[in-house]
Amino acid sequence: MALTRAFAAVYVPGAKPGQQHRSEDQGEALSLDERARVRRFEAIFVTHLDAAYDYAHWLTRDERNAEDVVQEACLRAFKFLDSFHGEGGRAWLLAIVRNTYYTWVKRNKAETLNVSFDDETMLANGCELADLESTGSSIDQVLQQQDARRLINGALDQLPEEFREVIVLRELEDMSYKEIAAIAKIPLGTVMSRLARARKLLLQHLQRAQQESRP
Amino acid sequence: MNCTDSRSRLHAYLDQELDLPGVLSIDEHLASCEACKTIFARQFALQSGIRKHAAYYTAPGTLKERIRRVISHTVTETPANDVKPRWQQPRFRRFQLGAAVAATALVSWIAAIQYNCGAKKASPLVSR
Fold first, then answer.
1. Pick from B11, B76, B90: which is nearest to A28 by CB?
2. Could you give the CA distance from residue B119 to residue A194 in angstroms, rounded to a whole number?
């Protein structure tokens, strides 16, 4: 494991327990507590890094920004590792990723504009939300198209942020309602209503895409 | 269960957040209601489509390296003031506890000896 090897460079080979050691490369002292913290962080971090990056990517919609957010989040996670107790390391890390993202958004407010369609935009364009009961077209037809991947990702990309994140946490990270509520800091009822709204918007978007693709 | 109840639990059913009685009651309703069955099927198709086609972005190897460097830097940059003094480290805490127990035992032993000596000296007076 590359990361283990990397962290091993920080550790002191052959150091006796409780011994303050001075690394030749780093020239700094590492206490037993610090080493234990690094090992503990590694256990959480390595397992859930992909989940953290995927979530950050869907939030920022940009590779480099996602990397910056995850890096900052991991640093925060390391600093506040002592506040983590028990199970649910992935949800804990994702919650930090989310907090880091919103800090990042505030810092880059002038550059970042969350352009997305929402109900009002759609209504302004004369596209009323499709009622699930009245839509005659089958979603299966859309999903069987060759460019289904592009359509799905395009629809997800255009969802308002608060809806997109619950869909990503639910469908891609397989989080329970309780975990999503903890990560997004919203009540359980809001998780359910946002999921329902997000799915409705996605269906509407996909159906519209299907109508546009018809000759 | 009627259609309104069934549809209000659509997403919880879809996300396997219902308990067994809730699931069974919806299953029973879907078996006899074509309209609800169509709606549920559409939601299932959407969920399957997202899980199958949505991009899952995996962390690039370079990111792992970057984070490794940042954490290493953080650990090694810890100021000397932040490193706990020797007497606060676990090994020395254990030593402190042992020393306290030994000191208590010693004081008790000395007190017991002095008490016994005092009793021996006093005993002749008592006999008189």
1. B76
2. 85
Torsion sign, CA atoms B84, B90, B94, B97 = positive
User: Residue A31, CB half-sphere, CA atoms under 13 Å: how many?
Assistant: 18
Per DSSP, the residues of B61-81 read HHHHHHHHHHHHHHHHT--GG
Residues of A in contact with B48 (CB under 8 A): 143
Task: Collect all residues of chain A within an 8 Å Cβ-Cβ radius of residue B10.
Answer: 196
Per residue in A135-181, pLDDT tens? 445 677 777 766 888 889 989 998 999 999 999 999 999 999 999 99
Where does residue B16 fall: left (phi above 0), alpha (psi -120 to 50 degrees), or beta otherwise? left
Q: Is B21 helix (H, G, I), strand (E, B) or coil?
A: helix
| pTM, 2 dp | 0.68
Q: Cα(B39)–Cα(B33) distance, rounded to whole angstroms?
A: 10
Query: What does the pLDDT look like over A72-115, one tens digit per residue?
Result: 999 898 888 877 777 778 888 899 999 999 988 888 765 554 44
